[in-house]
Each structure stands twice: as structure tokens, then as C-alpha cells.
């Protein structure tokens, strides 16, 4: 395939950065969004907030001008606001959903017109094992990640006849900055439920995302694919 225009939200660290590097390694033109900090070297950096439509429009405009309409969207940006339900405010819940669920919807809605014109596109949503298992203190986070499956499958049905696929990748316990704050006790609980007995690497998630964006996965859409080392098998 010729070099494609790829956009990875939250692509300045962790899984997002690994995904961006995986696409760049095969010659694709890759843009990454970041809300704070700096863009990693070697990519088109676009500073934006997925909760603000105007900010996203500006980011897409820059990407389209620099590397063409987005062919592959990887909606990875997300936040965590862990609290037990009785201590969780409305803003703790709805604010997180605005980033983790409505944000990917906004990104997909903005990317779809260009994909329709080409009659080809890949929409990829990064979920989490906790979206299916549930987790104490993560009612908001788990709800947002579960919602991505409904979003992707609805888009898969709407857009499939136009050559556009939509899939969900659900990482398990992956060694990233986000999980570095997990307590040793909770870390051991997750590893004890992981069949492979070890945490995953961001690159292992990125390889699956890259596969789903390629021609070898042209007949895969509406799928929920765990990359979890066996954590949550059968769910």
C-alpha cells in the first residue's frame, strides 16, 4: 500500500507513541495529537483537545494540509479519574466520558468524510480490559471503554459498504506510565489473572493495531480484539 495519512490521538507517549512508531516504520505519514507537553520527534505534532470540536477541526485541517486526508484514525487519547462510586461527582463521570467516549466519536465524525470520498478508511478505537471486566473505582472509565465497542460496531454497519472498517483493540495490563501508579497489590492481582504471567509491552498492542489497518485485515470489522495476555478470557 502507498504511504497513508495516519492520525493517532494521544500519540506522544505509551501505547499511542508505540502505535505511531509502528506506522512510521512501514513508511506511513503519521500525525500525533497531544494536549500538554511536546510532540515526539519524527511526527507531525498537532496540539488539540478531543473534548473541543473547534480544536479538533484545527488539528484535522493541519493534518490534511500537511499529509492529506486521514486514511487511518487511531482514537487512543484517554484519561483516568478513579474514585469509588459514592465519592464520584457528576463531573468525574461525565467529564471522563467526554474525553474517552465522546472524544473518539468527534474524531471519527471528522475523519469519515475524507474516507467516504476515497471509499477506504480504517477507524481504530483503543479500549481496555477493564471495560469488560469492570474494576472497583472505575465505573466512569469502564463505562467509557465499553461504550467504544457500541460506537465501533455502529460505525462498522454504517460504513462497511463504503470500504471503511471500524474495530476495537482492548489492551490488558501493559507497562506504561498510566499503570505505573497502580499499587503493588493491584499489580499482582492483574498479573495473577493474566495467562502469560507478565505485563504486555506497548509494541505488542501497536502490532495488532497496525495489522487491523492493513490489507490483511480487510474483512475484519466490528471486532473487539483483546491484547491482554489472556486477562479476561471468555468475556
UniProtKB/TrEMBL annotation:
The keyword Oxidoreductase applies. Keywords: Oxidoreductase. Residues 4-177 form the Ketoreductase domain. GO terms for molecular function: oxidoreductase activity, acting on the CH-OH group of donors, NAD or NADP as acceptor. Signal peptide: none annotated. Pfam families: adh_short_C2 (PF13561). GO terms for biological process: fatty acid elongation. The keyword Nucleus does not apply. Belongs to the short-chain dehydrogenases/reductases (SDR) family. PANTHER family: 3-OXOACYL-[ACYL-CARRIER-PROTEIN] REDUCTASE, CHLOROPLASTIC (PTHR42760:SF40), SHORT-CHAIN DEHYDROGENASES/REDUCTASES FAMILY MEMBER (PTHR42760). This is SDR family oxidoreductase.
